[in-house]
Amino acid sequence: MKRVHIVNYPRIAAFAILTGIVLHLGSQSSAAADNPQPQTTADPTIPVDELELMLRPLTSEELVVEANGWMKLVQDKVTEISSYEIKVKRKSREIEATKKAAEEAEQAAKEAEAAAVEAESNGTPGPVAAPDVAEIAEKTREAERKAEEKDAVVHDIVKLREQRQKLIDRFRTVLDELKAKGGEVKAYETYVTAVAGLAVDVDVSDASVLWTTGKGWLISKEGGAALGQEHRILPDHTSGILDTVPNRGQRAQPCVDNGQGDQRSA
After folding, report:
1. Using one digit for the tens of pLDDT, what is the confidence trace for 43-54?
2. Beta bridge partners of 255
């Protein structure tokens, strides 16, 4: 008697699908293990004390992942700042070119007028080329517009540098924890030192840019204000900072009237 084999196709199909799902989930788990993601960078403005608590239970291997994540945030911010600094340089060149064109047009008008006066004094008057006042005025206005645009970019740079400093503070917090747990931090520290210096890439001959960036750092909570408060030479409120910094780092002494018309330091 011939045997008949009954094949349960639905059961086989279900088994194949289940096997595929298991294999897929396994590959995802393997990929996640091979490429772990940082857990503390979701909020780049996280308070430092909260960040320290999040880092405390992590191993040195896990802290390396966090360090790489924070370094990427710093790198992206430095890249953004560099792009804005390039804009400032280009705006400066555009302004100089526009100013030069306006000056050349004005000089040409003056020379034409002088030539006409000289010809008339020699008894050979000729047609006088009228200066193109409208062209000169338009080029001057164009230079002013470009200067305003550049100032706006410079102010943006000041804000971006403040953001960079906040990221660096948190990056260094991660590095401190990593170092405390035996991790290697030299390469990270070399990088952060290179991008965290006080030096700024500005044209020192451009007074407006130099003043804006310098003032921005001076009154920044992460810059001069923090440095001044650390050494107790600046008040907590920095709105009047330029008028309240004592000479040679000494604290200002209050003056009292002794009732005899003169005042002495208390």
Report:
1. 999 999 999 999
2. 265
